[in-house]
Structure formats: structure tokens, C-alpha cells
Design a protein that fits this description.
This protein is an all-alpha fold. The chain has helices at about 5-20, 25-40, 45-60, 65-80, 85-100, 105-125. It is globular and about 40 Å long.
Length: about 140
């Protein structure tokens, strides 16, 4: 069972996603930042990282690539520190997508290959978040 702070962080993250899907980017940013802050206060590392990935994806959508990269790299550092393969896979996938969008194909390929390797370790198949358009 979740504690109330975790529920608040989860609700903020979900509300942020809803705003992002509607194109309400500033509202989404506020929700994601609230989710990150709440998750940090409760030491919920996984929820904090997931919220940072979503915020990074929002920044990528808004073409604020440096902000997106910083958040994705922060998650990768945490994932490596706690040795969480799933978070590593997510971070590499998001970084790969960012590099594809910036037409930095070699960097994209490196990160997406890392994501594929993680996916094979976890599930024996390709990364769930890598669409065919990103197959290199």
C-alpha cells in the first residue's frame, strides 16, 4: 500500500501527463515538478526518476533539448548508482530518442543499443519503448 505522499506524487505525475497530452505544457511542467519534489521528500527514487523522465520528455517536445538531456542523464546516474536495470533501459531509450530528434544518429544508436541490451537481460526482447521508426 502506498503512503499518502506517494499517492500525491503519483497523482501529480498522472495529471502532468494528461496536461502534456492536451498540449498544456506549462501546467504539465508544474505537475511533474511537484511529483519530483514530493517523491524526493519521501525518498521514492523510482517515482522521482519516472517523473524526471516525463518532465524531460515534455522538454524534448518543447524543443528544450538541454533541459531534457540533463534530466535523462540524472536518471541514468541514479539508475547506475542503484543498479536498476529497468530505469537504465528507460533512460537510455529516452536519450536515444532525443538524439534521433537532434539528428545525432551515432549517439542515438549507442543509447538505443544499451536499451536493447538491458531489455534482453530483463525480458529477452527489444525495448518496449523503442518504436520501429527508431530502429537503427
Amino acid at each position: 500500500m502506498f503512503d499518502s505522499e506517494t499517492n500525491v506524487a503519483s497523482q501529480c505525475m498522472c495529471t502532468g501527463l494528461t496536461h502534456a497530452l492536451r498540449g498544456e505544457y506549462q501546467e504539465a511542467r508544474i505537475c511533474y515538478e511537484a511529483a519530483i519534489k514530493t517523491a524526493e521528500q519521501t525518498d521514492n527514487i523510482w517515482l522521482m526518476c519516472l517523473s524526471k523522465l516525463y518532465l524531460g520528455d515534455l522538454y524534448r517536445t518543447m524543443k528544450e533539448y538541454d533541459k531534457a538531456m540533463r534530466l535523462y542523464e540524472e536518471v541514468l546516474v541514479v539508475a547506475n548508482k542503484i543498479n536498476d536495470l529497468q530505469l537504465k533501459g528507460y533512460a537510455h531509450t529516452y536519450l536515444g530518442h532525443l538524439y534521433v530528434e537532434r539528428d545525432q544518429i551515432m549517439d542515438a544508436q549507442e543509447h538505443l543499443e544499451h536499451a536493447r541490451a538491458v531489455q534482453r537481460k530483463l525480458y529477452g526482447g527489444p525495448p518496449a519503448h523503442t518504436s520501429p521508426s527508431y530502429a537503427l
